[in-house]
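tool_call: predict_structure(chain=1)
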Amino acid sequence: MIIDAHYHLDPSLEPVDRLLAQMDVHGIGRVALIAALSDPIHLSALGVKRWLAMRGALTGDMPEVGDLLYRMTVRHSGRVAYAGRGSAIYARPDNDGVERVLAEHPDRFVGWFCVNPRGGIGADEAERRLARPGWIGVKAHPFWHQYAVEELDPVAELCQAQGKPVLVHLGAPGERGDFRRLPERFPRLRILYAHALIPWYRRAWEDVKRCENVLVDLSSPYLDKALRHAALRELGASRCVYGSDGPYGYPGPDGRYDHGVILQQIERYGLTAPDLDRVLGGNFNAMIAA
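tool_result:
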């Protein structure tokens, strides 16, 4: 079964009925939902140039420049922007909305519960939610929510004790980007780092290979085809998980989100059938197995 491990529920961009229809079109059996973390982000031509410059610097010979550009996308005012005023970041993402969809379609969706220690959503609320049907783990965004990774320790301790994974989107080098803390302090915690471990990418992949409990997802325009293929080549199929980060990026001919782009890039890499199955669903199933 193909499973999208990283998708944001944002009905203003993709209603649930369209999402279900697109899952059928592309053979996606299940999607792991995450509450939207911000107002929709619409990139201007200048925003696209800055996005590409950031990704190019992070993956090229100037990662320090890339780190600076990456930091600049999140403002102290609580907005994310690549150019212009940007979009408001939600301190308290709509986990309730995700839970309603989980209840309506339990055979098609599971959910990552969004925490934010700075927004009052911590281990206590995560414990209550994870006891309910459909929730498979916790999503944390220390970068956008502007907190140190160490503030996730209570959540990480809970998830390790319960055998639940965490999905983490890290910040740039510093306290919000400490990719070593959780694996070292919680060696039995299953960790999925978002977007091939942005902004570190190759700078941290050797660490990933040394930690059996750490995987990365291949979602989002934070990666292009070359970077997805590099992750598959350098980390191996056992450490990579298919995800989309939809409904953001990759517009199709109708202007709506195209669920086939990332899938096709992975499928065309040339993995063996067993390895392709691992990336497209097997690794995810193993990660969420209690």
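agent: The first strand starts at residue 2 and ends at 9. Proceeding to next step.
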